Every structure is written in C-alpha cells, then in structure tokens.
Recover the amino acids of this structure.
C-alpha cells in the first residue's frame, strides 16, 4: 500500500510523516480545533491527573509545533511523552512553506 508523506526539516534533518489531509479536513469540519503543543500537554495532564485507570493509553490532538504551516496529529500518553502520528497543511492560502526540495 502506498502512503503519501509530508517531509519537514526538523533540527537540521528531514523527517517524514504520513499525510493525514482527509482526516484533518474531517476533524475541522466536525468543529475540531488546532491547539499549541503546550495547550495539548496541559489538557492531557488535566485529563490523566484524576484517573488511575489504564483504560486510556493516550490522547490525540491536532497541534501546531512550528511555523511550517502544518498541523501535526500528535499522541500524548499519561507520562506526557508525545509522538507525531501524521501531518496536514493548515487551511488558508500559502500556509505551507517549502523546506525541502528533492
């Protein structure tokens, strides 16, 4: 199966993430919001703090991490560790900045 990816320059190296454009569009159409990484971590801490149940492994958010014009689909676990699951361009003209040319 062919997976479309988005390449981003991170700390001097090129990272490749799955493109989740359709998923991001559905999320926005359903009234979802894009938050900062700081806000996503705060919300995750607030959610996990009162519960000791292991039923919830992690929470997912669409967040901005940089000025690339991309929204990143991130997963934050109860320890506060986060991992990027995919990326999609933010809506609006000219939001995505080219950072890598093959």
């Amino acid at each position: 199966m062919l997976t479309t990816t988005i390449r981003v320059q991170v700390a001097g190296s090129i990272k490749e993430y799955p493109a989740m454009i359709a998923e991001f569009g559905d999320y926005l159409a359903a009234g979802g919001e894009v938050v900062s990484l700081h806000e996503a971590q705060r919300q995750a801490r607030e959610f996990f703090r009162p519960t000791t149940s292991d039923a919830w492994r992690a929470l997912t958010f669409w967040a901005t991490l940089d000025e690339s014009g991309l929204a990143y689909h991130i997963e934050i676990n109860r320890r506060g560790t986060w991992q990027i699951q995919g990326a999609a361009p933010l809506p609006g003209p000219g939001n995505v900045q080219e950072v890598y040319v093959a």
